[in-house]
Design goal:
By secondary structure, the chain is of the alpha/beta class. The chain is built from 13 helices and 15 strands. Helices cover 42% and strands 21% of the residues. Strands 14-13-12-11-7-10-9-8-15 form a nine-stranded mixed β-sheet. A six-stranded parallel β-sheet has the order 3-2-1-4-5-6, with helices on both faces. It is globular and about 55 Å long. The structure holds nicotinamide-adenine-dinucleotide. Nicotinamide-adenine-dinucleotide binds next to helix 1. The site of nicotinamide-adenine-dinucleotide has 24 residues, from helix 1.
């Protein structure tokens, strides 16, 4: 099988949990080089994944003529400029979301993509989640979406501390803006956002197709609660998806009432959840999350009692942090198929189905419209925006 030669810029959190293992197992990909400004992360990645070349200088990676495509996974402050440099060096680019912090930077990537004619994929991987591809197919065949609710909730209060308050909409909710555009095949005409406290928000959208949608984004949930839930009302029935593992249909006599989807695994970690989710769907997910939550509570209580990491909590911590599934990445949100599809389309020179640079820009416009709506307490109209 033909393979595209990739380089990876940024070997941090998402690279370790997704891009490094996926770049080394996707059928249409071979990973030649990795770059990070942190030598420790770099060496660890190179050793663990047997990558032929490693560098702290991204320009040296971009100047390698053998490298055809790069994954950019630094952070939103640099991703646009790195993408533009990579495009100008003749590379195709898979860049993590959000494409940039500002819409102007996104527009510059759109311009560079057009100028160079290379492909850009933005890491809105949910478009490739098997459960969502099936949901889209069913919804489209049943009269299309009329009313959508999406809940995106997690313990951001724990993991999102490196971000300033009130920007969760830019780097988390951007995924859902893209998903809604993809599901409806339509553009938002207006957006309205209210918050109960910073990073605890409801966003409502009206699409040009007539569909309405609400997003409940909460950064104050618990790992006991599955992170995402999609509910779509179609012409006369409904489709729900519980955290990528269980799709249910309602009101369609000719359709399967329940479909279940396998979990996503990391090569180094325990993998039985993959089969449990496939066989038992949401019930297995609820049970596994409850177990992880309870173990973490016990470990934290033991630490609090002894005033330091408690030896008798060691086994629990090892399971939670080193052995068990990667909790945020155990359901299949489409990371691997999104990357492999991109590589395959580079080989055939056909436009990929991934979110393109324009989609990154449109998601950014929605993020900033939601923030403007929230801050000024007004409905923001987007009818004038044509990208
Ligand atoms: N699609 C998803 O599901 C998903 C999940 C998590 C994060 N993300 C996105 O991925 C991006 C990265 O997030 P993260 O959590 O991995 O961040 P991170 O901070 O853990 O990793 C970023 C890495 O980039 C490196 N870096 C920074 N500047 C560099 C440069 N000039 N050259 C080379 N390396 C450089 C840093 O040293 C760090 O190791 C963010 O945009 C984030 O929103 C996407």
């Amino acid at each position: 099988m033909q393979q595209v030669v990739f380089g990876l810029i940024g070997a941090g959190g998402i690279a370790q949990s997704q891009h490094l293992p996926n770049l080394t197992r996707a059928p249409h990909v071979t990973l030649k080089s990795v770059c990070d400004v942190r030598p420790d992360a770099l060496q660890q990645a190179q050793r663990q994944y047997a990558i032929p070349h490693a560098t702290t200088d991204y320009r040296s990676l971009l100047s390698d003529p053998e490298i055809q495509a790069v994954v950019v996974a630094t952070r939103e402050d640099m991703q646009a400029s790195l993408t533009i440099e990579a495009l100008q060096a003749g590379k195709h680019v898979y860049v993590e979301k959000p494409l940039a912090s500002t819409s102007d930077e996104c527009a510059a990537v759109v311009a560079a993509q057009k100028e160079t004619g290379r492909f850009v994929a933005v890491g809105f991987n949910r478009r490739f989640a098997p459960a969502y591809r099936k949901a889209k197919e069913i919804v489209a065949a049943e009269g299309g979406p009329w009313n959508i609710h999406y809940r995106l909730s997690d313990d951001y209060w724990r993991w999102g501390k490196s971000y300033p308050p009130r920007v969760r909409v830019i780097h988390e909710v951007c995924h859902i803006f893209d998903l809604l555009r993809w599901l409806t095949g339509s553009e938002a005409a207006s957006v309205y956002c209210v918050e109960s406290r910073p990073d605890d928000e409801i966003i409502t959208l009206k699409f040009r197709s007539g569909c309405v949608a609400s997003i409940m984004s909460s950064g104050y949930a618990t790992m006991d609660l599955p992170k995402e839930r999609l509910e779509v009302i179609t012409e006369k029935g409904a489709v729900t998806v519980e955290d990528f593992v269980e799709l249910r249909t309602f009101g369609f006599a000719h359709r399967e009432p329940v479909l279940r989807f396998a979990g996503h695994t990391h090569p180094d970690r325990e993998f039985t959840h993959k089969y449990l989710f496939e066989a038992e769907g949401a019930a297995a997910l609820f049970a596994l999350r409850r177990m992880g939550w309870a173990l973490r509570n016990e470990a934290e209580a033991a630490d609090a009692l002894s005033g330091e990491p408690a030896p008798d909590a060691q086994e629990m911590r090892r399971y939670l942090n080193q052995t068990g599934p990667l909790w945020n990445y155990m359901v299949n949100k489409g990371w691997l198929p999104a990357l492999d599809h991109f590589a395959e389309r580079i080989l055939t020179n056909e436009k990929p189905e991934n979110a393109a640079a324009e989609d990154g820009l449109r998601a950014s416009v929605l993020c900033h419209a939601a923030i403007r709506s929230r801050d000024n307490n007004e409905v923001v109209s987007l009818n004038g925006f044509d990208g």
